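Is this the right way to post structure tokens for a design question? Let me know if I should format differently. Anyway, here goes:
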């Protein structure tokens, strides 16, 4: 086994959290190495096609899914440079103030170890650095924030058609807050509004690791190594500190990478898996697991997708994948009618493609052959859709565990069990009913909904105030191993009812600041 030269920091994963942490630590003068399990992908390799979009999805070791509401890992995870953030859609709302204190305010779920006011400066710093577009006046639900850098994206026909329904019901819509350029910004061009976000963004209009933080990291000396699958975290003799990681290349050759600080910023499922497979004789249930909570509280936003067929041309090919408008009416009232609990938002007017993920053909799973052909011919002109992001209650038994089956590297496969809490299921039904009412008010001639979907995974290594009720502190620092840090949505104690990528960046920036400011203490 080859032992590589020691670095200051080894970061596992090149996605949203890994890229910003590498960039900021390298800016602070640290020698940083990123290990990415997937292949190298550059914007020049990207093509606006549905086949290409599939290549950006998970291509690593199989993840086994159990439970009544599986998490759809293959669609949500990424593969290659930038991870899942390379194919994310760029909708960047902020978590609301009550998302951080669900247990304190409602006696349910968990609390974060800090509040919105503590995270706000990091949201604002990220927003200024990458450039966001939106309308901070129209977005009346937005928590206290700095103004957006760019004007909002235009509203096309599909967005205007659906927004009529919200208006008739006395509800509000706002341009979506987007990590997508509406004008030339920081040397990156404006969006073309051709709706191919799912296949990456070859022109660089969309903020992802390849457009902002990986270039910044490389500029400051960070090395990004691809086809490097980390198989375990290595500990010192008395298991008080991490000393590095072991990884395998695509041919299975093993190496050891030594480091003063180890940052696990892999995808939500892979990070807890790594802690579990790094078990030792002293810690047979995995490292950083004195709480017994490594793998627990896996959450998956669900989505109620509402479709409507209209007489008018909706021009549904125009726009961006995430939608043109949002609505967050009632977001801060988590207790909904009956047993429904949680927050949600609508994203309105999602750009359409003929088939594949969120495509026109998939809007009607029940149609085949000539019936499907006829539907598609009508839908390309007259279909309008909106989707929701619905909060998932954290449940300890929704978790990552290890299978007896192993991958090509001899590492146990991850098993993910997810059964939605009854309050989440009731919220999903509530959101569907509201969506049908909105689409009817908009004037749709035919209205229907999709099934229970899964998106934006979080949890598995939740942060908290004590080692008894969490895996890390508020800085992503594991309670048990002081020089082992975690970045990404696996830290989130609750999921909120909005897209997660902006919050992943903000939390990771806070962690990077902490590591930089505490370097002497962490390494002595």
């Amino acid at each position: 086994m080859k032992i590589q030269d020691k670095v200051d920091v080894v970061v596992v994963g090149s996605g949203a959290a890994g890229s910003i942490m590498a960039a900021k630590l390298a800016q602070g003068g640290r020698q940083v190495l990123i290990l990415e399990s997937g292949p190298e992908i550059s914007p020049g390799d990207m093509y606006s096609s549905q086949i290409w979009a599939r290549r950006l999805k998970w291509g690593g070791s199989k993840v086994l899914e159990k439970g009544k509401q599986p998490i759809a890992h293959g669609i949500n995870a990424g593969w290659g440079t930038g991870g899942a953030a390379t194919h994310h859609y760029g909708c960047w709302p902020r978590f609301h103030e009550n998302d951080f204190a669900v247990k304190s305010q409602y006696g349910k779920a968990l609390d974060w170890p800090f509040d919105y006011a503590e995270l706000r400066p990091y949201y604002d710093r990220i927003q200024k650095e990458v450039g966001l577009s939106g309308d901070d006046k129209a977005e009346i639900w937005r928590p206290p924030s700095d103004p957006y850098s760019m004007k909002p994206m235009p509203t096309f026909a599909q967005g205007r058609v659906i927004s009529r329904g919200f208006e008739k019901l006395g509800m509000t819509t706002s341009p979506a807050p987007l990590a997508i350029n509406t004008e030339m910004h920081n040397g990156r061009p404006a969006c073309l509004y051709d709706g191919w976000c799912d296949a990456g963004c070859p022109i660089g209009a969309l903020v992802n690791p390849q457009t902002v933080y990986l270039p910044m990291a490389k500029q400051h000396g960070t090395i990004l190594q691809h086809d490097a699958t980390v198989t375990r975290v290595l500990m010192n003799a008395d298991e008080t500190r991490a000393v590095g990681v072991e990884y395998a290349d695509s041919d299975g050759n093993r190496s050891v990478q030594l480091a003063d600080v180890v940052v696990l910023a892999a995808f939500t499922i892979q990070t807890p898996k790594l802690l579990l497979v790094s078990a030792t004789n002293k810690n047979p249930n995995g490292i950083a697991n004195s709480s017994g909570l490594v793998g627990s509280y896996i959450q998956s936003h669900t989505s109620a997708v509402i479709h409507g067929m209209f007489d008018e041309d909706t021009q549904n090919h125009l726009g961006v994948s995430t939608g043109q408008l949002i609505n967050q009416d009632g977001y801060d009232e988590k207790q909904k009618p009956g047993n429904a609990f949680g927050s949600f938002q609508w994203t309105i007017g999602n750009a359409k493609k003929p088939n594949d993920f969120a495509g026109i053909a998939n809007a009607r799973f029940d149609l085949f052959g000539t019936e499907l052909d006829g539907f598609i011919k009508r839908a390309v002109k007259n279909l309008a859709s909106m989707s929701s992001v619905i909060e998932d209650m954290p449940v300890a038994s929704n978790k990552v565990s290890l299978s007896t089956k192993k991958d090509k590297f001899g590492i146990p496969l991850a098993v993910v069990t997810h059964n939605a809490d009854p309050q989440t299921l009731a919220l999903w039904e509530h959101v569907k009913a509201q969506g049908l009412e909105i689409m009817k008010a908009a004037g749709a001639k035919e209205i229907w909904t999709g099934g229970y979907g899964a998106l934006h995974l979080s949890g598995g290594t939740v942060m908290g105030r004590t080692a008894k009720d969490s895996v890390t502190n508020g800085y992503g620092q594991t309670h048990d191993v002081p020089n082992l840090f975690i970045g990404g949505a696996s830290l989130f104690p609750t999921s909120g009812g909005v897209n997660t990528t902006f919050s992943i960046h903000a939390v990771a920036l806070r962690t990077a600041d902490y590591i930089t400011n505490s370097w002497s203490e962490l390494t002595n």
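Format looks fine. Someone answered above. Worth noting: Residues 422-442 form the longest helix (21 residues). The domain at 1-42+77-88+93-114+208-289+460-524 is CATH 3.50.50.60 (FAD/NAD(P)-binding domain).
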